[in-house]
Design goal:
Elements lengths: L2 H20 L6 H8 L3 H13 L3 E6 L2 E6 H6 L3
Antiparallel strand pairs: 1-2
Helix pairs in contact: 1-3, 2-3
Length: about 80
């Protein structure tokens, strides 16, 4: 991975974090894809990376999985 690709990946992750900050109620991959104007697979890749970095929490509710920033999830007492 070149520095340019690394910068793009970092920027995309930062943008995902910013979107999740604006939505403490949590968002699905479909919602994130629409907001980010990006393919679902791309969003999923970075969401899984952020989950591995212990930055986000995923919660399954029925057929939907919602994604939260970890600090927001903990603040809401869930």
């Amino acid at each position: 991975m070149t520095s340019n690709n690394s910068d793009k990946a970092s920027g995309f992750r930062d943008s995902l974090i910013d979107v999740l900050k604006e939505h403490p109620e949590g968002l699905s991959i479909a919602d994130l894809s629409k907001i980010m104007k990006s393919h679902r697979q791309t969003v999923t890749k970075y969401i899984l990376w952020l989950e591995g970095a212990n930055t986000i929490y995923r919660r399954r509710i029925g057929a939907v999985t919602l994604h939260y920033l970890k600090k927001d999830w903990e603040r809401l007492g869930r």
